[in-house]
């Protein structure tokens, strides 16, 4: 009986002291299209991390709504990282989808890289002189341990182009907000000189964006 009571008390004390949740951070993503003919998106990711050992970034294995295992990380090029003061940080590639950034100091972490995009598919991305289109899962790694944290997206498109997405506008034109990483990557983005159609279905407002010639 004494042993049973001791076990029950131990379980009660253990369950009453859960491990603290990771501190919430806001992750900022910025997409530039400086040379559309190169098919290269320029990406910057900025965030703070409470982990003194640094941070892990992981690309998803598939795109929402298209459950075929892919390897979007193969299109990432020239990844580099630095802290808020501009000091370069070491990056270790752990596997084909995951990287570890070794942190120095207590400032924000800034990650820059390029993504080659010339596949106009449901799970891909394309950038050329007529438009830029991407699924977030093709461009953006997740900050491991912070999948449910809020995200911001800034899209800097060439002059004369507009930007369309289902994400909520946030501040200046080209800036958007997502409540978490899943919402970010489940909201494709189209940039260019497109046609925009607005209509309603059973009282629900809808918006469609059309790239290219249509009849």
Please tell me about this protein's structure.
The chain is mainly beta and 215 residues long. The chain has a single domain (21-210), classed as Immunoglobulin-like, CATH 2.60.40.3650. It has helices at 2-15, 136-139, 181-185; strands at residues 27-32, 40-47, 55-58, 76-83, 88-89, 91-95, 98-101, 109-116, 118-119, 125-127, 131-134, 142-143, 151-156, 162-165, 168-169, 175-178, 189-192, 195-201, 204-210. 28% of the residues are buried. Mean pLDDT is 84; it is low at 1-20.
List the helices and strands and how they pair.
Blueprint lengths: L1 H14 L11 E6 L7 E8 L7 E4 L17 E8 L4 E2 L1 E5 L2 E4 L7 E8 L1 E2 L5 E3 L3 E4 L1 H4 L2 E2 L7 E6 L5 E4 L2 E2 L5 E4 L2 H5 L3 E4 L2 E7 L2 E7 L5
Parallel strand pairs: 1-13
Antiparallel strand pairs: 1-2, 2-8, 3-7, 3-12, 4-5, 4-8, 6-7, 9-10, 10-11, 11-17, 13-16, 14-17, 15-16, 18-19
**Structural class by helix and strand composition:** mainly beta
Please report the number of helical segments.
3
What's the CATH topology name?
Immunoglobulin-like
Low confidence ranges: 1-20
Distance between the termini: 82 Å
Helix content: 10-25%
Radius of gyration: 21 Å
The SSE string, one letter per element, is: HEEEEEEEEEEEHEEEEEHEEE
- Topology, number of strands: 19
Q: Please tell me the overall pLDDT.
A: 84
CATH level-two architecture = Sandwich
Report the portion of residues in β strands: 35-45%
How does the major sheet shape up?
8 strands, mixed
Shape category? globular
Count of all domains = 1
CATH class: Mainly Beta
Q: How are strands sequenced across the largest beta sheet?
A: 5-4-8-2-1-13-16-15
């Amino acid at each position: 009986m004494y042993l049973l009571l001791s076990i029950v008390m131990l379980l009660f004390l253990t369950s009453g002291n859960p491990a603290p949740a990771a501190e919430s951070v806001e992750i900022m993503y910025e997409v530039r299209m400086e040379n559309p003919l190169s098919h290269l998106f320029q990406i910057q990711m900025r965030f703070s991390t409470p982990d003194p050992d640094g941070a892990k970034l992981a690309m998803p294995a598939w795109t929402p709504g298209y459950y075929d295992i892919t390897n979007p990380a193969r299109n990432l090029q020239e990844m580099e990282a630095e802290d808020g003061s501009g000091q370069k940080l070491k990056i270790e590639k752990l596997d084909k989808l995951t990287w570890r950034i070794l942190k120095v100091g207590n400032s924000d972490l800034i990650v820059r890289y390029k993504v080659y995009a010339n596949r106009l598919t449901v799970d891909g991305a394309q950038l050329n002189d007529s438009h830029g289109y991407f699924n977030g899962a093709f461009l953006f790694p997740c900050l491991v341990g912070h999948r449910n944290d809020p995200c911001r997206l800034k899209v800097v498109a060439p002059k004369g182009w507009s930007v369309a997405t289902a994400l909520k506008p946030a501040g200046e034109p080209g800036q958007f907000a997502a409540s978490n990483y899943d919402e970010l990557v489940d909201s494709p983005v189209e940039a260019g000189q497109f046609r925009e159609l607005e209509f309603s279905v059973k009282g629900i407002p809808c918006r469609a964006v059309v790239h290219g010639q249509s009849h």
